[in-house]
Amino acid sequence: MGTRHAVVMMVAGLLVGLFWASRPEWVADMRLWRAVGDAAFVLLAAGLALGPVAKLSVTAGRLLPWRRQLGVWAALVAALHALLVLSGWARWDLGRLFGFEYIPQLGYVARWEPGFGLANLIGLVALGWLLVLAATSTDRALRGLGPAAWKWLHSGAYTVFHLSLLHSAYFLFLHYTLSFHKNPPEPNWFRLPLVVLGATVLILQMVAFASLVRRRAARTAGV
Asked: Are 99 and 122 contacting, i.e. CB atoms less than 8 angstroms apart?
């Protein structure tokens, strides 16, 4: 394992530990899979922020090579999050994962929370795409696919981020509300950091794009 992979792996473990320690009031299984999921989102956001930052700052551009390792470990940690949810809460029942469950009070299987299944489907699509990106984040894949095809494939990384943001936002802002069939828990403290991280990546993208357009316009005017 390369040095960068080892460093990012340790950072991922530290993030999981910090998220775990921050929610002692939660039950152990939910506490674990949420800690892992939040860590994956932070790694993904950090990796995607490096691209536009590198376009805006030569100094920050020196960190750009770390983007590959951040993306790979974001995918691995996100896959662990999905496995924990599937094996723990959903018990490998896809119907339950997508919001259908037997309700004793009703006596039949019902969709017990609007939006729950769609949010999980969005998460699975994001995970599948992220795993493809991680699997092709190698020099060998770049040579095999060719620069143009590889760049086109990896341009979807921001779409993965947007899907991950929607998936996370549902569980932070919509799922655990008074409409839930159980007493809702206290609001998750990660709400504000999620909004800040999501907005930061989006703003960096827009600023980097505007900077690129200005530089190209300046070059064209100078010709």
From this structure: no
pTM for the predicted model, two decimal places:
0.89
Considering the domain boundaries, does residue 169 fall inside one? yes
Provide the domain count of the chain: 1
Q: Which residue shows structure tokens 């039950």?
A: 27
Counting Cβ atoms within 10 Å, is residue 101 exposed (0-12), middle (13-18) or buried (19+)?
middle
The whole-angstrom separation of Cα 99 and Cα 50 is 36
CA–CA distance from 84 to each of 13, 77, 81, 176, 223 (Å)?
Answer: 16, 11, 5, 20, 58
**Residue numbers of the chain with a pLDDT score lower than 50:** none
Residue 143 lies in a domain: yes
In DSSP terms, 172 is beta-bridged to none
Provide, for the chain, the percentages of residues in helix, strand and coil under a 3-state DSSP scheme, each rounded to the nearest 5: 75, 5, 20
Q: Is 177 exposed, middle or buried (0-12, 13-18, 19+ CB in 10 A)?
A: exposed
Strand ranges for 12-144 from DSSP E:
100-103, 108-111
Does 191 reside within a domain?
no
DSSP state of 186: P
Give dist(CA 43, CA 201) in Å, integer: 12
Strand positions, DSSP E, the chain: 100-103, 108-111
Parent domain of 209: 3-184+196-222
